[in-house]
Design brief:
The chain is 23% helix and 28% strand. By secondary structure, the chain is of the alpha/beta class. A hairpin with a 2-residue loop joins strand 8 and strand 9.
Length: 626
């Protein structure tokens, strides 16, 4: 009588996929050092805790000056300033730029007190009387302000982000030394069969021995799919030994992966171990290669048995197991290394040199791939995160035309374009909303720039705040309101807008493209009307009006650190940082969608998150649904 047991009814590939997907192989999140975080997946959002750069710095060699001392200077009538000293990169300035003076400064050096601009060295001449300045500069010229790359409080990386060298660079710039990541499933690799010999050991071909191919090939495939492979000793075709190894592996790993001994032969006993010690959910799949496949559990661990032939084992692994491992580890499906798309906007160049243009990818309403340039300067680490790859622009190219077909070389095969591309105002509630979207990308370029790029057809949505003067073809899909005003030290004497004009108040403004700045300027216009003057007559008395910060928390942090007496900001920021607040108004924030992308799944999904804003506003003072 034969001991051979026939296969059960063969399962369809779809059923096998469901069976493997139904296994619980996801480990708990963990925290790992930054130097061990490559290819890991963030378990939660990381916000910038510091400004990058952390200080106002010179962006070129030259002279740090007070901009007003250069007004009217030109080649014919230079301004002569006395030399106060020298400031080197990496040193704390020991000079102060007083009216009528300048300090020699190196690229990257800290701006000395009193200076608000840098004159490039090429537009100056040193004389016995000091330095001749042959050009006028405005406050902020050739100065990289603190937080200009990424500002404290800004959303740096969201949950589900795969940490490639680009993201590692950004985290390094933020001073992050350990990160919360999705756990990597521990996968036991167990090759079975009396005939197997480890590479490096002596092989007896006459006895039918073969080198173990599967252990090493599968371990590499597991690692590529986001798992942590653990290789165990060979298990022969012995019931007791196989049971011992399976139990040991199940106690130590999230998934036990064996190869071989999955057929119905009497000497292949592994399926009996699963039946007697665990739960055998599937035996045999209607697919070639790969019919002899097992799916089940051993105790609390998942189990998958692969065929013994290497090609079959790898085929079944990549088809059924790798997607489940990637899902458990939070990794995306692999992508091709080069993607073809159409330029969303015209990009001019014409410098006569080869250019590797950082580029992002987004799908339009019809599913076509659009390519948009992402170039924030060589010193901006966020460009690494905002781009998916690069377009190799040949030296003779004057421009890339809108609609022109280009190839984007991805930074890695694992790169996937964002499902949702947004641009515009930065906002703390928006950061929470984006957490609910799968693989979003949001560029906080400000309200004005968000509107411009939405008009060009680049992003799916633009988030805009404050008064809007521009007419644009867009669909309003929701929004909220937020209270804005002046963030001040607790107990400050600043009680209103007039104090900025009438008193000696050090003020930190927002950039001109932000919604907060628009509302602030409207408030200044109203005050100017009351006094019978124009806005310029007021702003010339506001110390710091022309020096701006990038993100919504930046001015408040200047106040907290004692570098300013008031900053333009939100009530919720003042609460978060334990500061005082002088309310100046309530501002509307709107989410505008490109009309032809309203039905795009990611846009529709994002719109649905706007239906229940109250639950997401917990802890955000001054925020209300629209």
């Amino acid at each position: 009588m034969s001991d051979r047991r026939e296969f059960r009814d063969l399962a369809s590939p779809e059923a096998a996929q469901d069976a493997v997907a139904g296994l619980d192989i996801a480990p708990e999140p963990e925290t790992v050092p930054l130097d061990a975080a490559r290819d890991r997946v963030l378990a939660e959002r990381i916000d910038a805790a510091i400004d990058v750069p952390g200080f106002d710095r010179a962006s070129m060699d030259g002279y740090a000056v007070r901009a007003r001392d250069t007004f009217g200077a030109d080649e014919a009538d230079p301004a002569t300033l006395s030399l106060a000293g020298v400031v080197h990169a990496g040193e704390e300035p020991d000079v102060t730029v007083e009216p009528g003076t300048a300090a020699e400064i190196s690229t990257g050096a800290v701006m000395p007190p009193g200076a608000d601009a840098v004159v490039m060295v090429e537009r100056t001449t040193e004389t016995d009387d000091g330095v001749e300045v042959r050009t006028a500069v405005a406050p902020g010229d050739h100065v990289m302000l603190a937080g200009a790359d990424i500002a404290a409080g800004a959303r740096a990386l969201g949950p589900g982000t795969r940490l490639t060298p680009r993201e590692i660079g950004l985290l390094s710039a933020l001073g992050v030394d350990e990160v919360p990541v999705r756990g990597r499933p521990r996968v036991a690799i167990l090759s079975t069969g009396d005939e197997l010999v480890r590479p490096g050991d002596e092989l007896d071909s006459d006895a039918g021995q073969i080198y173990d191919v599967n252990s090493y090939a599968l371990a590499s495939a597991v690692e590529e799919a986001g798992g942590d492979p653990v290789m165990y000793p060979h298990a022969g075709d012995d019931f007791e030994e196989m049971e011992r190894l399976l139990r040991e592996a199940a106690d130590e790993c999230d998934l036990v992966l064996s190869s071989g001994s999955t057929s119905a032969s009497a000497v292949d006993v592994i399926y009996r171990v699963i039946e007697e010690r665990g739960d055998l959910r599937l035996h045999g799949v209607a697919i070639k290669p790969g019919k002899p496949m097992l799916v089940g559990t051993i105790g609390d661990s998942a189990y998958v048995g692969l065929p013994g032939y290497p090609v079959s084992a790898l085929t079944i692994f990549r088809t059924f197991v790798a997607p489940a491992l990637r899902d458990a580890a939070g990794l995306p499906a692999p992508e091709t290394a080069v993607i073809t798309g159409q330029m969303a906007v015209e990009e001019r160049y014409g410098e006569g040199r080869r250019r590797l243009l950082p580029a992002g990818l987004v799908e339009d309403g019809s599913g076509a791939t659009l390519v948009y340039p992402v170039d924030k300067g060589s010193g901006a680490t966020t460009s690494l995160v905002d781009a998916d790859g690069f377009v190799d622009v040949s030296p003779g190219t004057d421009y890339l035309a809108e609609g022109e077909e280009v190839e984007v070389t991805l930074f890695s095969p694992a790169v996937r374009p964002p499902t949702l591309l947004g641009m515009g105002e930065d906002d703390p509630l928006l950061s929470r909303l984006l957490d609910a979207v799968d693989r979003p990308r949001y560029l906080p370029v400000g309200t004005a720039e968000g509107l411009r790029r939405l008009g060009e057809g680049v992003p799916d949505v633009a988030v805009v705040a404050g008064p809007i003067d521009t007419e644009i073809d867009a669909t309003d899909i929701g929004g909220w309101t937020r209270e804005w005003g002046l963030v001040v030290p607790d107990g400050s004497d600043v009680t209103g807008l007039s104090a900025l004009v009438d008193d000696s108040v050090r003020f930190v403004n927002r950039d001109s493209g932000s919604g907060l700045r628009r509302s602030f300027d409207r408030a200044l216009d109203a005050l100017a009307d009351e006094r019978g003057v124009d806005r310029a007559a007021l702003t010339e008395h506001i110390e710091g009006y022309g020096l701006t910060a990038k993100a919504h928390e930046s001015p408040a942090r200047k106040v907290r650190d004692g570098d300013a007496d008031a900053g333009l900001g939100l009530r919720t920021t003042a609460t978060k940082l334990g500061l005082g607040f002088v309310p100046l108004g309530t501002q509307s924030v709107r989410v505008l969608a490109a009309p032809d992308r309203r039905e795009k799944p990611s846009v529709a999904g994002f719109e649905s998150t706007l239906d229940d804003l109250e639950a997401r506003m917990d802890g955000l003072d001054g925020f209300d649904p629209r």
